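Section 3.1 - Work completed
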Amino acid sequence: MNQIINVLFFNDKNYNAKMQLFFAVCFPFFTILALGIDSVSFTEHYFDGRQITNILSILYFCFFFWSSDAYLRKLMFAMVFLSYLGEFIFCTLLEMYDYRTAFIPIYVPFGHAIVFASGYVFAHTQIAVKKDNLFRKCFAAAFTTLFLAVGFFLKDIFSLIFGIFFFLLLKRKKWQNLYYFIALCVIFIELAGTYFKCWKWAPKTFGLIPTSNPPMGAVFFYAGGDILLTKIVDYWKSKTTNKRIEIIIDSENCHF
């Protein structure tokens, strides 16, 4: 009986793939629920729901993590720590945005990992892989239009500048759709977070560059972090693989 349960719920790749897709698809709905509870409106009408959002985010992260394969688990795990470092730099040191409270919420690093994992899962679906070229062309046109539109209509110079950097970064990564899918998830959570007033971007980044709330060009910083994350996990994976090879060789030498 235990073997059957283990096969069905832990080692069944098809089951895990379906669960990953389930959590990725539910990401927008979970985001609205979690950020809505942490919103200024919810706090004013009921009570401060920050702790509820913290618990919900950690639980969602854990279930998503549990359903993921080994590589995505490493990415999600490392993303939590890398995200907190990024928050400290961009929020605390550079003051590019502020949360509704004086400190960085606990749910934020876990939320970043959920955002990344959702984009990662979407990018590896069958339709995304089969229609890779079509998605690439559509994404390029859509994001170009988006950056130009917010720059012209909202006077968001920040997005115009860092939108260019975003495309330069994608060029170096051979225009992988992975970063477009993650960027879509980023834009959604930024729009939701600022709508609920969970955080707010400064009207001028670095005190100089006009910025909308939220700026679409923020996807550049997420993409840069995602690339760094992948490098860290790939290095981690290579070290782990090399260690396993050494153990196997040592065991064979001992045998003979």
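Second construct:
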Amino acid sequence: MLEASLESITDDVQEALRSEVRQIIESEGLTQAFIAREAGLAPGTFTPWLGGTYKGDNVDKARAVQRWLETRQARGRTAATLPAAPKFVATLTATNILDVLAYAQTAPDFGVIVGGAGIGKTTAIEEYARRASNVFVVTAEPVLASPNNMLSALADVVTVAERRSVYLSRAISAKLRGTAGLIVIDEGQHLSSAALDQLRTIHDKAQIGVVVAGNESVFSRLQGGERNSQFAQLYSRVGMRMSQPKARAKDICALLEAWKITDARVVSMLKLVAAKPGALRQMTKVIRLATMLAAGDGADALSEQHVRRAWNQLASTPLDAVA
């Protein structure tokens, strides 16, 4: 990339920048609107600058484009040292999650998946949605706790235009009825009990499958202290449930095999990582960072030192501490 200082953006430098951007557009198929967004410029400003017809401060725009090119080049260097994560790994846990999703969609029924952080719930849900038709996934967050907010997010995924809260449930049910579809709520612990009950209503009216995945609090609401008459209708709808608090040893080994990590000492350390909060997700982060550190050292393979350095950058507790 052109090495021009920000203080010396002459007309020739600008033309060189424009030429470099045009080459990127042609070779990678990027749009001008995409580049403008990444460069922090309005499309209506970037397009005339690229064409050499902008009437405003061209030097200022050229500096923004130069920063974008330099940032892009830096990202490329970093990306080259990061290993690509293995494609979907059919661990025992993932297979069990897929079974719950498939059952709920086929029956159709109401399913609950409860699991600790990082055991692979989201990855399995994404894989199922990729394979199956009419799967509508909503990732819950605190702001979606209320029934109306949850329905609004679901309407976006289902592509329902209705936005009046009193008619949302009816419109969603009508759109989904007869589709043999499946609603999946990931991070379901963020939903209120009333929002969960609203999902029960859609399940009944649309006659489609519903699966709620989340941490232990999701299921405890259904089977614990809140299991009273208010929740009897919802609890009775749960046809299949799965509960797994942490990653299985076989899951950890399957993922390490997919990463092609065989050094016994490195495997042992990564198993320690996977036994901690965050499980497989945290282990994957450590592997990616450790691989980057190894590449920076010119090493051909991961070592214990790389894993430990990666862990120290990502966590605040010693790796050897009891999980």
